[in-house]
What we know:
By secondary structure, this protein is α/β, with parallel strands linked by helices. The chain is built from 27 helices and 16 strands.
Amino acid sequence: MLGCLTLFVAPSSSSSPFLSFNFNRLSHLRPSISLPSTTDLLRTTSRRLILATKKRSVSTMANEEENVKRKLAKLFEVALKVTVPSVVDVEPLVAACTGKFGDYQCNNAMGLWSKIKGKETEFKGPPAVGQAIMRNLPQSDIIESCSVAGPGFVNVKLSRNWMAQSIQRMLIDGIDAWAPRLPVRRAVVDFSSPNIAKEMHVGHLRSTIIGDTIARMLEFSRVEVLRRNHVGDWGTQFGMLIEFLFEKFSNWEDANEAAIGDLQEFYKESKKRFDSDPDFKERAQKAVVRLQGGEQKYRKAWTQICEISRNEFNRVYQRLGVQLEEKGESFYNPYIPAVLEELTSKNLVEDSQGARVIFLEGFNIPLIVVKSDGGYNYASTDLAAIWYRLNEEKAEWMIYVTDVGQQQHFDMVFKAAKRAGWLSTDDNAYPKASHVGFGLVLGDDKKRFRTRSSEVVRLADLLDEAKSRCKTTLIERGKGDEWTEEELEQTAEAIGYGAVKYADLKSNRLTNYTFSFDQMLNDKGNTAVYLQYAHARICSIIRKSGKDIEELKSMGAIVLDHADERALGLHLLQFSEVVEEACTNLLPNVLCEYLYNLSEFFTTFYSNCQVVGSAEETSRLLLCEATATVMRKCFYLLGIVPVYKI
Ligand code: ARG
C-alpha cells in the first residue's frame, strides 16, 4: 500500500514519462475544425464498447494501433460510466507507473467521489469507488490482474501474453504500426530560419536540431508537415549589403561566391561603412526603399546575395540530414497590405505616434505593424505568414522554434491572431500556434558560447570538430586497419553529428545548455555515443548468434517470463505513447529519456538473461531485435544515423 502511495507523491517532481500525471492529454487535442476530435472518437468508440460490455468482453484486436494507455483509457471509460452513470463525460485518468503493484493506474476514484459525495450513493468513500471501477472493467485480453490501493487508485498489471504478442506483431508489421495518432492533419514547423548574410550560429543550430526532431516526430505520427525556413531575407540590412556590393565590385553582376568570399566578413565590412560614413548610410537607406519598391537592379543584387547565403546554409543542412523549404520573410511581403486591411477592418489596428499598432491586453507595449516610416517589420511579416499558413496552406497547427528571447514577440502575434478570430482562443483547440522556445548555448565558462577571439561560433566548424574527434577515437581503437576509409568517414560523421544533436535534445529545451565536446563524445553516461554503442552491441549479439532473424520472426515466439524480460517488453510497448507525449508537449527530451532508459532496461535484461545458447534463445533474440528496432526509430526521430558496428 505504501509503495502505491509513494507512486502518487513522487510524480510531480519527476520528469519521467512513466510518472507523468498530465493525464488530460486527450483533452489537449481537441480540434475545433473539421476533423473529428479525440473526444468524438472516444465517444463513438465507447458506444461500441458499451455494446461490447453487454458480453463483458472487449476485443482489443480491432484497434491494434492504439497505444496501451489509450486502450486502457477506453476500458476505464466504460467502467466509469457503469460505476457512476449519473456523472457524464468523465475523462479517464490513466497513466503508466513503475511499481510492483501495476504497470498503469487509473486515478479517477477521488475525483468521482468529490462529485457524488453528499448525494445519494451506494459508496462510502473513494476506495469503494475504486473497487467498483475495478469490478466494472470490461474483460480484456490486455489485462492480467487489477488491484485497488490507497484512496482508490486502480492498478493494472498487463497480460504478459498480450504484451509478447504485441511486440511480435510489431516485428512482423514494422515499427510504423506503433505510430501515434494525432488529431491534426497538417502542421507548419517554422524552424532554423537564419538571417541572410549573417552566419548561422549555434542558436540556429538549436532551432534546426529541435525543429527537425519535432517535424520528424509529427511526420511519424502521420501529420503532414510543412517544414518552413523563414529566413530573414528582407530586413533593412539589405540596403547596406547591396550598396556595399555595388561599391566593392564594379562588375558586381559577375561577383559570385568565390569573389565575395565569406559573407559574414562582407556583412561586417559593410556594417563598418554604414556606421562610419553618413553618405553611405543614406545611400543604403535609399537602397532598401528601391529594393522593396521592386527596382530591378536592386532585386538582382539582392537575389545574388541571398543565393550565396542559401548555398552556405544548404551545406549545413545536408551535413545534418535536415530537409527544409525556404519561404523567407520576403515571400509574405505581398500579403501584408491585405492582411493589415483585414485587421484594421476588425478594429484592431490604431495610429500611435505615426506608427500603426495593435494594443493587446496583458502587454505594456503595443505590437507595431507599420513603422512610422511606413515600412513593414518582423511582426507584420509574421501576421501575414499566419494568415497565409491558415488560409493558403490550410495548416491547423503552426509551430515556431526560436530562442526564448522571442517569446514575447510570438505571444503578441498569436494574441493578435486570436483577436482577429484566426486562431482558437482555447489553447487546447485548433487551429493553434505554439512557440517552442529554447535556452542559450553556453561555453565551458558558462557564458554565451563564443570562440576564443569572441566571435560567433560557426556551425560548420563545430561539425568538423565533432567528426574529426570521433575519427581520431576510431583510429585509436584500431578501426583504421579494419575498416575502409569510407566506413571510417561515415561512422565518424554518424557518431559525431549524432552526439552534437543528442546533447542539444536531451535536456529540457527551455534550459540553457553547455556545449562540451568532452561531455557529448563520452562513451559513458547519457550520450549519443553510449547509445550508439548499445545499439551496435545488440546488432552484434544477433549477428553472432548466426540465426536468421527474419525466420525467427515468423516461426518463433516471444515469452516474457523473466522479470527483466517483462520490464524490457513493457518499456518497448510504451514507445508509442512516449512519442505522442513528446509531440503533444513539443518536448524532444522526453524521447531522449525514453531511449536512454530503453538501453538501461536492455542492459539489465542482458546481464540477467543469457541469450545465445539458452533454452529461451529464440524469444530472447526476438527481444533483442525488437529493442534494436525501437532504438533505431528513436535515432531516426532524433535525426541520428545509427551505427551497426563500432
Ligand atoms: N530569422 C529569425 C532569427 O534569426 C527567426 C525567424 C523565426 N520565424 C518566424 N516566423 N519569425 O531570429
